[in-house]
Design brief:
- It is globular and about 35 Å long.
- It has one domain: Glutaredoxin.
- Strands 1-3-2-4-5 form a five-stranded mixed sheet, covered by helices on one side.
- With about 110 residues, the protein is an alpha/beta fold.
- The protein has four helices and five strands; from the N terminus they run βαβαβαββα.
C-alpha cells in the first residue's frame, strides 16, 4: 500500500473523510476479497497520481461495521467518492483506473 493512502475506520471516518477539504476516494475492502486485492495496485497508482488534489483512503469492511452500515455497502470492492462531506459517486466492483480517474477528475474540477 502506498504511503499516501490512509486507513480509516469507524472512529476517525468523520474527521478523515467527511471533514476533509479535498475530494476523498474511500476503498471499501477486505483481506479475503480477491477483486479487492487486484484493485489495490490501481488504488495505489491513483494515490500517486492525485497526490495534492484528492485523497485516497481504505476502510476494512470486516473491522468497521458502523461505516459499512451507514453507507449501505453490500458488495466489495466498493469505491465511494466524497466531497464536502457528501457522497458524490459510488463504483461497485473492480473498476478500471480510467473509470475511477474520471470520477475523481469530475470532483477535482468541481472543487476549484
Amino acid at each position: 500500500m502506498s504511503e499516501l493512502i490512509e486507513d480509516v475506520n469507524d472512529t476517525n471516518f468523520v474527521d478523515a473523510v467527511l471533514d476533509e477539504s479535498q475530494p476523498v476516494l474511500v476503498d471499501f475492502w477486505a483481506q479475503w476479497c480477491g477483486p479487492c486485492r487486484s484493485l489495490a495496485p490501481i488504488v495505489d497508482a491513483l494515490a500517486e497520481q492525485y497526490a495534492g488534489t484528492a485523497r485516497i483512503k481504505k476502510l476494512n469492511v470486516d473491522d468497521n461495521p458502523g461505516v459499512v452500515e451507514r453507507y449501505g455497502v453490500k458488495a466489495i470492492p466498493t469505491l465511494i467518492l466524497f466531497r464536502d462531506g457528501a457522497e458524490k459517486q459510488r463504483l461497485i466492483g473492480a473498476a478500471s483506473k480510467e473509470v475511477i480517474a474520471r470520477a475523481i477528475d469530475a470532483q477535482v474540477v468541481e472543487n476549484h
